[in-house]
Structures are given as structure tokens and as C-alpha cells.
Write a structure and sequence with these properties.
This protein has about 250 residues and is an alpha/beta fold. It folds into 2 domains: about 160 residues, 3-Layer(aba) Sandwich (Rossmann fold); about 70 residues, no CATH class. About 35% of the residues lie in helices and about 30% in strands. Strands 6-7-8-3-9-10 form a 6-stranded mixed sheet, with helices on both faces. α4 crosses α5.
């Protein structure tokens, strides 16, 4: 189980004040607390700028934080490489190296995860069957279609068989077929008892995939509970989420 306790994060922002530039502390997260269980998908929702992506990046070990604790399987987010090796992170802006083939990208990232060549090749063969990578494997990324590129991104995320998947707007900019493929991947990983964090603005994805929901507003968790408490359908969930966010103030 993933546990986030008392997470606080502040950014330093430069502002012009008359004839000089000063640095001002900008609190972004204030005592964020949430849990995510194995075999369940936690949807992390909120308005733009509320702190969703910052929370996910702290959990992924991509950002440091001033206070709080993030732990899972006896490790914490401050465990360095050991922590990152149990996490797969995918955002709408995730890209592969364009001058390498998809297979070359996977071999490279596999070494970063500490995998040996044999393990990497075996895992690529497994993912080829699961994701139908096909000719994408031997195609340079800058010659791949959007769908092929997305398959490569998904393969990279799953390559080291992570226990925790962090998906930040993973269907952003994708067409219907690529989005559907992404949702199928999430379902399969949940069925494989992985822990999944999903950030999205699409309530139909929440209705289809989420078991639990955490709503972040103004850097705090305004709601944390089963998705059924918000509604059964996308329209109901949208109305409930909007009401909660408006109650806090964007």
C-alpha cells in the first residue's frame, strides 16, 4: 500500500519588485494525505494548478519536498534509486528518444532500472505480446505514428514490472483508439494487483477505471474516498467533483 502523510511542498518564485527581483516562497502542497491500495486505482482529481501533478511528481521521486513522508513496501520516496525502481511514471508529455528505435529506447531505459540484457530482452518479448508492438520495435521513434509512439511509452513504463503506476493525464492528445488502448492497459495492471494513481480531467475515465478518488484543491485533499460516494456515472461524478472544488475555492 502507498501511504502519503503530511506532504508539504513549496516552490521558490522570482518576482519583480520595482527596481529589483526578489524570491518569494509559493506553497503548493499543504499537509496532503492519501493512501492507495494494491489492486485498486486511485484517481487524483482537481482543477489546474491545484497541486495534482506536483503530488504525483513527489511520489515518483522526481521532486523533493520539505515535510511529510511517502512510503510503500518498506521504502520511502527518499530511498533514491530503490524507490524509483518500483515506480512506472507516464504523463501526456512523456517522450522517447527520437533518433533511437523503440527497442533501443527500451534497452536503454532497462539499464537505467538496473536490469541485465537478458531480462530486458525477455521483458520486451512479453510486452510485444501484450501490447502488440510489432514493427514499432524496429522503427525509429521520429518515424513512428502517434499510436506506435504511445505503445512505446507504455512499454517503457511497464518495462521493469513496477508495483506502482503513476499516470498523469496519460490519454492527453491521443485519438480514440490510442486512448482505449491506454485504458485497457490500466485495467490489466489493476487486475495484476498493481497500485495505480491516475490523474485525468475525463470523468468517463474515472467512472470506468477508478476505485477510489482523491480531490486536491488549493494544495489540500478536499475529498478522499470510494468513487461510489461521488456517483455511479461520469455526469454525476463531474457534478460532485465540481461542487467539492467550488466549496474550497479554486
Amino acid at each position: 500500500m502507498l501511504s502519503v502523510q503530511g506532504l508539504c511542498k513549496t516552490f521558490q518564485e522570482k518576482q519583480k519588485q520595482r527596481w529589483k527581483t526578489i524570491t518569494v516562497a509559493k506553497p503548493v502542497l499543504n499537509n496532503v494525505e492519501l493512501t492507495a491500495k494494491s489492486g485498486r486505482t486511485l484517481a487524483v482529481l482537481g482543477a489546474n494548478g491545484a497541486g495534482k501533478t506536483t503530488t504525483l511528481r513527489c511520489i515518483a521521486g522526481m521532486l523533493s519536498f520539505e515535510a511529510g513522508d511517502i512510503s510503500m513496501n518498506g521504502l520511502t520516496a527518499k530511498s533514491g534509486a530503490s524507490w524509483r525502481q518500483q515506480i512506472g511514471y507516464l504523463a501526456g508529455t512523456t517522450r522517447l528518444y527520437p533518433r533511437l528505435t523503440v527497442a533501443e529506447n527500451l534497452h536503454y531505459f532497462g539499464t537505467l532500472y538496473g536490469m541485465d540484457k537478458t531480462s530486458i530482452q525477455q521483458r520486451i518479448e512479453q510486452l510485444d505480446q501484450q501490447l502488440e508492438l510489432g514493427k514499432a520495435l524496429n522503427t525509429r521513434v521520429d518515424a513512428c505514428s502517434t499510436g506506435m509512439h504511445q505503445k512505446g511509452n507504455i512499454a517503457r513504463t511497464l518495462l521493469h514490472d513496477p508495483q506502482l503506476l503513476i499516470l498523469d493525464e496519460p490519454t492527453s492528445g491521443l485519438d480514440i483508439m490510442a486512448s482505449t488502448r491506454m485504458l485497457e492497459v490500466v485495467k490489466r495492471q489493476r487486475d495484476a494487483d498493481r497500485t495505480i494513481l491516475l490523474s485525468t480531467h475525463h470523468m468517463h475515465e474515472v467512472a470506468e477505471l477508478a476505485d477510489d478518488v482523491a480531490i486536491i484543491a488549493k494544495g489540500k485533499v478536499a475529498f478522499n474516498g470510494p468513487v461510489q460516494h461521488l456517483g455511479q456515472h461520469a455526469e454525476d461524478i463531474h457534478q460532485s467533483v465540481t461542487k467539492i472544488i467550488q466549496g474550497v475555492g479554486v
